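Dig into what follows:
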Amino acid sequence: MGTELLTIGAFARATRLSPKALRLYDELGLLPPARVDPVSGYRRYAPDQVERARLVAWLRRLGMPLVRIRHVCSLDAGAAAGEIRAFWARAEAEAAARRDLAAFLVDHLTRKDPAVAPIAPALTLRYAAASDTGLVRASNQDTAYAGSRLLAVADGFGAGGAPASAAAVEALRRLEDDGVPAGGLLNVLADAVEEAERAVYDAVRAGSAPEAAGTTLTAMLWTGSQLGLVHIGDSRVYLLRDGELFQITHDHTLVQSMVDEGRLAPEEAASHPQRSLLVRALGGGGADATAEMRLQDVRPGDRYLLCSDGLSTVVPGDGIRRVLAAPGEPGRAVRELVALANGSGGPDNVSCVVADVVTGG
């Protein structure tokens, strides 16, 4: 005697899926019934389909798209668990980005009128920039810039890497002269990134292999009370505050994505053969050019470092912190950081921008 099939109503109750959802999943080939009556079209399901249906329901509650659910359901248990882990890690990263944007918007909409706000001490930046070819590369494809409003590092790659990085930074340099109210900073940065993307495209399209050329771009724009951050790629921003060093950007690399998704241990990332493969960049054959943007509140005494990966991949965080925490002007710090990178073999171009938040002029 064969196994008794369940009616669609009984199967819906057992799986907590509505009959409407079951019909949709049948149409998509995700959960076809065991038998369909050729005359009435009535669907019946086998009891051993309940577990798969419950998995589909749980994955839908996670917000997983149906196409990806179908893929997950085709895998064995171990591989399916890995796919779910990767999906959720990416969902958390996207939620974190939306949370930052929401926090910015709430802050922007509830901020008091500066005309009636308590008078705060005037803050300004002291800054310095340095860029070096390193000991291995034949040319320098980095661009570093520091001014009274704009701090920027761009790390070019490919045959047109040098003009690409220069074009990206040059597109932002107009912000030095433009008045930028804190409330409009996000829109200003978004427009500037679009200009930088166009400038990079124009700079590299005449090259021998424009599809392989592009640049990272990490920059901070000073409003007089806050720093607006825009970040694409694997250059970094560090903050030294009260003697502690914080990395405040997230690398847009394949390897970092693998770490985020739990497919690679953090200690394995440094030596991974694809550690420099970017998933976000300006140019680079249609790479994702979506920038991270947010406001950074500052305090007197803060010290910021913007650097290309020519520093961060060869000098550990403790070494960077020691240099930044040592007394001295920003110019001394950038020289010492470049020397540290070259002292570690100088395998890549290295660029550094250091800026101190100070009271008064």
